[in-house]
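Our collaborator T.R. sent over the components below with a one-line note: 'Predict the complex.' Nothing else. No constraints on interfaces, no templates requested, no preferences about which chain binds where. So this is a plain run: every listed entity goes in together, and whatever single assembly comes back becomes the starting point for the next discussion.
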Amino acid sequence: MKTKHILLLLMIWIASINSAFAQESINASGIVMDEKGEPLIGVSISVKGVPTKGATTDLDGHFKITGIRPKQTLAVSFIGYVPQYIEMTKSNERMRIVLKENAIAMDEVVVTASGKIQKKINVTGAITGVDVSSLKAPASSVTNMLGGRVPGVISMTRSGEPGKDFSEFWIRGISTFGAGQGALVLIDGIEGNLNTLDPEDIESFSILKDASSTAVYGVRGANGVVLVTTKKGKAGKLNLQVKANAGMAYSPRMPKYVSAGDYASLANEASVTRGGIPIYSDVDVALYKNHLDPDLHPDVNWRDVILKDYTWNQQYFLSASGGGEVARYYISAGYTTKDAIFKQDKGMNRYNTNVNYNKFNFRANVDVNVTPSTTLSLNEETVIITQNYPGFGNDSRLLWEAQSSLTPVTVPLMYTTNQAPGYGTDKSSISPYVLLNQTGYRKLFSNNNKITMQLNQDLKAITPGLSIVGLVNIDANSSQTQIREKMPAIYYANGRKRDGSLDLEKISDAVDPSYKSDNYTDRTFYYEFRLNYDQVFNKVHRVGALVNAYWKDFEASKFTSLLTAIPKRYNSYASRLSYSYDDTYMAEFNVGYTGSEAFEKGKKFGWFPAFSLGWAPTQYKIFREKNNFINYLKFRASYGVVGNDRLTWDDSVRFPYLTLLSNASSGIWNNGSGVTETQVGSSNLRWEKAIKYNFGIDTRFFHERFDMSVDFFKDIRSGIYQQRQSIPEEMGLVTLPWANVGKMNSWGADGHISYTQPLGDNDKYVTFRANYTQSMNEITNFEEDIKKYDYQSAVGYQSGINRGLVALGLFKDQNDINNSPRQDFGSYLPGDIKYKDINGDGIVNSDDEIPLKYSYVPQIQYGFATEFNWKNINLSVLFEGVSRVTYFRGGNMFRPFSGRNTGNVITDFANPANRWISSEISGDPSTENANAKYPRLYYGNSSNNGRSSTFWLQDGSYIRLKNVQLSYILKGQTLKKFGMQKAVFSLIGENLALWSNEKLLDPAQGGSNGNEYPIQRIYTLQLNLTF
Amino acid sequence: MINSEKNKNKFGFIGILAMTAVVFGSIFSSCEKYLDIEKYVYDQTTLDSIFLSRARTEQYINGAAELLPNESQLTGSEWGYASALPSGLGTDEAIIPFELPGNVILYDEVKETDPRYDIWSTCYKGIRKANIVLQNLSKNQELTEMELRDFKGRAYFLRAYFYFSLVRMYGPIVILPDTPFDTDEDVAYASFERSTYDGCVEKICADFNEAAELLPTDRIESLQYLPTRGASLAMLARMQLYAASPLFNGNTYYADWKDTQGRNFISQNVDKEKWGKAAATYKKIINMNKYAIHTVAKINNEKGTGTQPLPSTVSSANFPDGAGNIDPYKSYKTLFDGTYQPYIVKEYIYYCVNGMAGNGDYRMVMPAKLGGNSSFSVTLDMTDDYRMADGRTFSQATDEEKSGDAVGQDKTFSMDYLLSGKRAHRDDGREARFYATIGFNGCIWPTTSHRDGLSSGTRNYVADYYYGGSASDMNNNNNRNRTGYTNRKYVHQDDCIFWNGVMKAKTYPIIRYAEVLLGYVEAMNEMEGTYKDGDITVSHNVDEIMKYFNMIRYRAGQPGITTSQASDPTTMRELIKHERKIEFAFEGQRYWDLRRWKDAYDAYNKPIRGLDVSAPEAQRSQFYTERIWNTEKTMKRMFSNKMYLWPISRTTLRKNGKLVQNPGW
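Returned assembly:
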């Protein structure tokens, strides 16, 4: 704060000195052009410190300003170009100002469909260009960086496990309840995986949200498109970049479980309060507390046994780029390694059983000028991932499940006689210590290769602005899981024999080490041709055209039946025409003619048209002259149709239009064989169709310091695939067909605003950014059985909405029970949950379950960030939040003793204030608290209290301090001695703080009830060197 | 290194040419070709390809026939599970001591949420298939005119039979348009209200009529199980007979049951002409002169083990005027026990291989000693209705004739029917159909196909239903008979599950000529005036009533009825009901008959009577004491009016908002 004040004072002082010395008046006029010598229209030229003075270049790029005082500075600025500052000492009427294109300011240009780079000023669709520099934090995956950073994206990270700590994300939320809700991700025009992409390789990143920007993707574009381009070499000297970081991760929020003594007394209360006998005798309870009998009265904190306090991550990255006139290159290699937080007992085995994730990235982008007008490019990407797991499974979930289901008293770590303990044959009934250390291990590796060959021919020989591109891509992936599994003999001690030795019962035999492997391969062939045309006529008519065609073919070893193994294919022809007049009026027409093999002959292709219009009133000279506050203003509107051809998320259903037959008998007719349909062909199957409306405003104001953009959207989905579960049986269909019957609407808004306050020179500023995404939806048609009550229907409610009973609190006493409607879920007593009889039939049963606000996917996600730069120091802070999200608390965690002797009890239950306690037990009537957080305990499964209801419905909103990054940037002579241009040292913190109603878990993992690897808090030290 | 200056234009030009060629080449090489999956699926069977081939078309029709309820599965597989219809175990003829889908209706445990029998969707699947056939048959160029007629006829027959099965079970049902629905049809457009009962009957009759027009009268032996003109007419007549019966003809119990347009689902006006329609159809079948009552010639042999001598009350004229030249036992028994190849049995009109052959439900009737459980227990209501050989009713028999004392003398008749001396008098001297149908204490199970040595197993086993007797497995409460009687209608002399024995393949008559005759008699008895259908005119004709009714009686070796009996419709009605009960015992008819006559209430709401099987062999007279059995759940039989029709499953109702449940459910 102090510095800032001083700074401002300083600025005012310098300005006043300037004006004090000014006396004579000089003139400036001339032309502004780009590096190619093309005149630039609409460039703003202002006189520093004199807001009233200034000019804009005309159609020929000319400008003229009079009445400038000597030593005043002209600021020449234009969107997408590096501003220039020229100090005037004398009049100059023939100035030639050449503005350089600003390669860094990516927010001023965006990548649009088919990888075309378009000036943002001309964009009429809803496209978010993501500031690539903000994606450089050492996150596990690019997907994890989207939430709270990118308007228009709803994103949730659900797991902290290395290799699974990626986010699911939806562009503009969920807009279909059908399969394929995810966005299409294209990396350099090829379908790719954001989770394996190294953020350092990204040159540009944009999100296409509306129909106008995705129509050319036709049948694949309904859920939005993510476009990423990777870096390419530039002619010039070698540019070398090295990055290294090391991070320390730990679990900030995990459920805490009670000790053996507390567990035993709570179990006794749970039984006694329902008229049962105590589960554990006083002697037992004492033994649990004093730890004198570790075999039969253990007190195990499974957390301590299998979890470390923290773990390490490392990332390394190296890239080199450069080249000459004939050839340019960009090559990079990255390595990421992460260990999970499990504590392996090295004494138990000789191999690594901990979960880990290692990723090797390689990329080579090479461009060769075969002729001056022909460029040949080869892009190669290889990602190799190796992962390690304990032998029991490809997922650490069981380890968390075992932690939450094994109580501190169930079994010891190991019996003192060295047998492995367990109480059932189910894997979650076996000690996680055994699972982690004694079940062998498995290794996963996957190789992912993408090779793209691209030929770019400039056709200016035919007409300037015309070019053609052809590319071939082969994507070949394979993976293998090697499983070396074993299992020790599992024992359970039933007590002691007469001689005092343990009475061990063998629950399961030892399984000798065995080996097997699972293999997977897939490959994609992709061909594309593009004809591109861009030209400006008479300096004001900007015309663009694009024709594109592609063919895609995918095969994978996971498809194993005659029909599913048919290659998945797409074929698309698309075109775009765009026109803008003087960057003031813009119109764009897009059309995709896309086909998929999924449909029957004659119905494979569909048209997906979209229109958009834009109008930028600030481009009027008159507007500029009259208005100094708003620097830029544009209105955009679009309308279009896109599609979705996915039937099921796993492609298990294909070609449902085919009627398939197989052999039958002739029944009682005894007339030889018969045939019958094994699949009734679904008639008239088409795409799921999305009609999308978008209206947006882009503006910059207050000396371009505020930059704001807002979009409002509405999606009307129709023809969502549903298997016709509820058609009348009289239709007589042998198998249930698929049909385009579901309908759903979604609507909302997204936007961002940023403000930059210069604090002096270019390297001193503070920026505030905020963004917001809201996406709501409502199912408008859903094929379902006829429901007794309207509220039981999916129609009229949010997709995936939580449904349950309405809880009215806990029953106060028997009187309260007698005067309330009967509850049809088993026995209940005072202190149990009381529900509302919604339909008023005098009985509370499943008919009284109603939709309860929100689903597990948030409707609102927002973020705010600030960046402060002072010379060499840069500090950035990002907060991210979600709201309008709920989930049910459940499982072992919130239903102690529901599995009787299984299920760990969280410490929250040990606090008497939190639960209803009968006065017979506490001796105090006030503990019969009808407003208690938890109902009367139950030893066993209380089907009354266990119902999904508002009692357990948890608000999942949160605000997270997602990222804090403090960097020190070194430049200059000292570095040059080492051949270095720049060195950046950073300290980065991820997930540093969390504010939420949910205190026991990370609310992003709320639905997992403690059975999921917790989301990690990570501190990283990073070094970034540029040579 | 490329000399770019030199190659500049050349390469640019070549590049352009090559790329434009590829681009446009690809575009014009048909958009759809790349996405075509024909090469992967052309050699798999698709629906369109079916109707191009004669053989495949026939197979598709067969596939629809596969969905027909297998009416021969009266008690279901092996131990009684999953019978095709409730009519085998849900009627008043017998009880079994364990709970099965087939008998839960007896003690009111059928529910809308768990109806146990849900033939609704299966039948509509069959109807859709039939409609698809009718829609596509004309595409087939391989079919001759004859084949086209036959195939079309089969499809009509199937559609009618599926609708018939539904109507029989549920009463009024949904009659659909004849064009199969598109799979993406809006639920609202595919949801139809139930038609009125008469509307359903009209549709079914039209389809059976159409089938009768198209199907051949005769078939070669290899196609014998396929429906014919006779089968279609017989099914049509059965539908008409049901529709004329009191349950659906002016039944005021359903007075308030109406569709959305206010029409009564069940017509409230008694329409006697409906009987006339049935009579006319029956007459058509009789006039075909293709079918006859099956008889086996009288067996004369000197050992005295041939045909039993006819009682004086029975006409000794040649059949059909008397029973003088036939063996009544064999004439009736061989219809069910697999003695004859079905193709030569002229009584069979529509029939199938008996699905119970193999071990089938023999397990349920055979004594434990022979590998069964003898749990199928026939009630005394049933056995008492079998008359004495001379035509007296059992109640008219003398006390001695009714006693449980042992006859003491073995006996053999009809060549191979053996009677043990241990049999009681009450099981002696009964009519032939009793011996062909009923197994009793002391009855002999010959198992003549027994092929292991004499030391192993049992031949000519004498049934022993005493408590602790060898017919019972005392370790399993379910493996015991509860009344002292069982059903051996479908058991052949040779049948033997163990000891390398065989089970004879058998034929199950879905419709036999006896049903046509009794149906004709019943319809004539009930009709008023005359009814004309084409060149057939029918009326209440006493001569014909006597003629056709007595054919059934004479074949069983029983005395015929008198003119005065035949002239009185009330007497006749009782005689017909009684005759149907005996003639069609355990043939799945009585379940439907009791309902259509509205007799079910009286038939079911009375206790189960049986012998006292809790008595051991030492207490023979106690064993032969009649007693009421109500000690077990499956004996607590009851009937309420809702049970006249089966409930529609809740899942079915939930999928079609226009469906209404049957009254009372």
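Summary for T.R.: Chain B touches chain A through 80 residues (CB under 8 Å).
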